[in-house]
Design brief:
Phosphatase 2c, domain 1; single chain; 21% strand; 14 strands; 43% helix; alpha+beta; binds magnesium ion; 351 residues; six-stranded antiparallel β-sheet; Multidrug-efflux Transporter Regulator, Chain: A, Domain 2
Length: 351
């Protein structure tokens, strides 16, 4: 085996000897031989490709444990892992970007003089929930009030108390005069923390039970969103339907990472497996959504989206003259499609 000194190997790979010593210490690239007397490191020419790959992966910011795994794979497998890693980075960055925008808006509003804010709009809401045709009980909880819309989809033996507790813990948001400008983020974060505690109490620590939560709080000019799990929020604007939440599900992450096609995802056996749920630790996504007159918002449990395609949801939402009709026709559509799950919808119109 042709061995190069660390200096020669550094020159050939374009990496510094310091970087190579670091990779050795981190276990990312061991020298082919270490002289037992002098401690000098020697590398094989065949290690050049791996050294360069490790350098690129570090430049991408990949965690060391992942670099260790990826750098031993062949080209196609390594490519798949890099693609999946980057999809995760983008998903996490999107959540942080939304939170940063929320914070910017809050800090701006808190320094604005009264009366400078945008014109007040109003929200009109309706909600409807149904057991469906198959499940023995309804474990969904849905709420639509003056300024709050919420959907929670409970699962496990204490699923119903869990979803009820989550929504109940948010209801005070509807009874108040509305959030003070510049304080929506704190108010919503505190409310969600209260909901999370309430779910833990309701399930008495039963790890098999829990709930999703997707909630919109009307601020007078926009909607603050809290979201965890696979219930969804959609916006109907200008005739187009836009999903404004990202499912915290195993299947969604496989889709993001390019490991599943949308068609495969539709029939995936683990479609209902969740990555994040309320009460189990991770914080819900929080973001602020600017509203326009004419916007129609939909919150729904997976009992709707599991059986009614987005196209059909768009058509039914667009055709309904008011929120009451919209929620009824969406729930009917899920039941007509077999009603395999509890189904819940809440719709809010901005006027
Ligand atoms: Mg469900």
């Amino acid at each position: 085996m042709d061995l190069l000194t660390i200096g020669a190997f550094a020159k050939a790979s374009g990496l510094s000897p310091k970087a190579l010593r670091l990779y050795d210490e981190l276990g990312l690239l061991r020298p082919a031989r270490v002289d037992p007397y002098t401690g000098y490191r020697y590398y094989a020419v065949a290690q050049l490709d791996r050294a360069r790959l490790v350098a690129w992966l570090r430049r991408l910011g990949m965690p060391l444990a992942e670099i260790r795994a990826v750098s031993t794979l062949d080209g196609a497998d390594a490519a798949r892992e890099v693609r999946a890693y980057w999809a995760r980075v983008e998903a996490e960055t999107a959540v942080r970007r939304d939170l940063a925008a929320f914070l910017v808006s809050e800090l701006t509003e808190s320094t604005e003089a009264p009366g400078e804010g945008p014109t007040m709009l109003e929200l009109r809401c309706a909600a409807h929930s149904d057991r469906g045709h198959v499940r023995p009980a309804n474990q969904d909880t849905v709420y639509a009030g003056r300024r709050l819309l919420a959907v929670a989809d409970g699962f496990g033996p204490a699923g119903a108390p869990a979803s009820e507790a989550a929504v109940e813990a948010l209801r005070f948001l509807d009874e108040e005069d509305g959030p003070r400008p510049g304080n929506v983020l704190n108010l919503l974060a505190d409310a969600v923390r209260g909901a999370s505690d309430a779910v833990r109490d309701a399930t008495e620590g039963d790890g098999e039970a829990g709930t999703t939560l997707t909630a919109l709080l009307w601020t007078g000019s926009g909607l603050a969103l809290a979201h965890i799990g696979d219930s969804r929020a959609y916006l109907l604007r200008g005739g187009g339907l836009f999903r404004i939440t990202h499912d915290h599900s195993v299947v969604q992450s496989l889709l993001d990472e390019g490991r599943l096609t949308p068609a495969e995802a539709e029939s995936h056996p683990q479609r209902s497996l969740l990555l994040k749920v309320l009460g189990a630790g991770p914080d819900p996504d929080l973001r602020l959504h600017e509203a326009l007159p004419g916007d129609r918002y939909l919150l729904c449990s997976d009992g709707l989206t599991g059986v009614v395609p987005d196209d059909r949801i768009r058509g039914l939402l667009a055709a309904a003259p008011d929120p009451e009709t919209a929620v009824r026709s969406l729930v009917d559509a899920a039941n007509t499609a077999g009603g395999p799950d509890n189904v819940s919808c809440a719709v809010g119109d901005v006027g």
